[in-house]
Structure formats: structure tokens, C-alpha cells
Design a protein that fits this description.
This protein is mostly helical and 162 residues long. Helix content is 85%, strand content 0%. The chain has one domain.
């Protein structure tokens, strides 16, 4: 369920992330025309669908393989699932500031390679809070703000990257 909530909240999370980045860095972003906002929102939803499809493409076959190998299969599935889910949430919540800098999926994946401990630690924290019923609904905006601040800490504000 937590994975699907990102799909529905994508357009709102982008606006929240931009506001957090403006407050934290002092960088003003130009006003975006309504047509471009709609295109960006649709692109964001498409990106969320692609991330979910990639996650499912890895986890579903791994789940079925884990059923064929009792004991060891579940252990491998749990370990790989833990790391992959933490990476998924880390990539998911640094998505908006990365997108504002035209950082595609490879760039975000590279962030996990370059800053593994910070990214996976953040992803684990997000995952744990999203597992708690009702708290997960209130926590998502905090995760968006946290992902934006983590991105700024690891990659720098927009004006430093240009």
C-alpha cells in the first residue's frame, strides 16, 4: 500500500519538495506555466508507475523462487527484499529534487552507489514509518521533506550544480 500511495501523491509531493528546497537553500525557482505543471505531473505519475513495475519485476520472481527453496529461499528473499525496498524508498523520496535537475533514474541509482549508507539508512527509516498504520498517512509529507533535505546535503543546492 505504501508503494501505491506514492503514485497518487506524486503531483503534490513535487510542490512540497520544491517549497522545502526553496526554504532550505534560498534558491527561488521560476514560476512554471499550468500546462507545464500538468505535463510534469503526468511525467511524475509515469515515473512512479515505472519504478513500481521495476520493483515488481525483481521482487515477484524472487518471491516465487523463494517458495521453491524452503528456508534458504526465504532468507535470500528477505535480505534482497530488505535492501531493495530501502533503496526503492530512498530513490523514491529524492526523486523530486533530482528531477528538477534533470537527474534521471541512472543518476538516482548512482546516488545509492555513491552515498550508500545515507541513502539506505534514509530508505530504512522511511520504510519503518510507512509500516505503521495511520502514521504512514501523516508521515509521507515528512519523508518528502526529508528526501529533499537529504538530496541537498548529498548533492548540493540547485545553484551549486549549474
Amino acid at each position: 500500500m505504501a508503494l501505491l500511495s506514492s503514485l497518487f501523491a506524486a503531483p503534490f509531493n513535487d510542490a512540497l519538495s520544491e517549497a522545502v528546497e526553496q526554504l532550505a537553500s534560498g534558491v527561488e525557482f521560476p514560476r512554471v506555466p499550468l500546462g507545464a505543471q500538468v505535463r510534469n505531473a503526468l511525467r511524475g505519475i509515469g515515473g512512479e508507475i515505472a519504478k513500481l513495475a521495476l520493483y515488481a519485476a525483481v521482487m515477484l520472481p524472487l518471491f516465487f523462487v523463494s517458495l521453491l527453496i524452503p528456508g534458504a529461499g526465504q532468507l535470500v528473499y528477505s535480505a534482497v527484499g530488505f535492501v531493495l525496498t530501502a533503496a526503492y524508498f530512498a530513490i523514491d523520496y529524492v526523486d523530486w529534487p533530482a528531477s528538477r535537475r534533470d537527474g534521471g533514474f541512472r543518476f538516482r541509482l548512482g546516488m545509492v552507489r555513491r552515498h550508500g549508507a545515507a541513502m539506505l539508512g534514509f530508505g530504512c527509516g522511511v520504510w519503518l514509518f510507512l509500516l505503521i498504520p495511520f502514521v504512514n498517512l501523516l508521515f509521507m509529507p515528512a519523508a518528502v521533506a526529508g528526501g529533499t533535505l537529504l538530496f541537498l546535503e548529498l548533492e548540493g543546492p540547485a545553484e551549486e550544480r549549474r
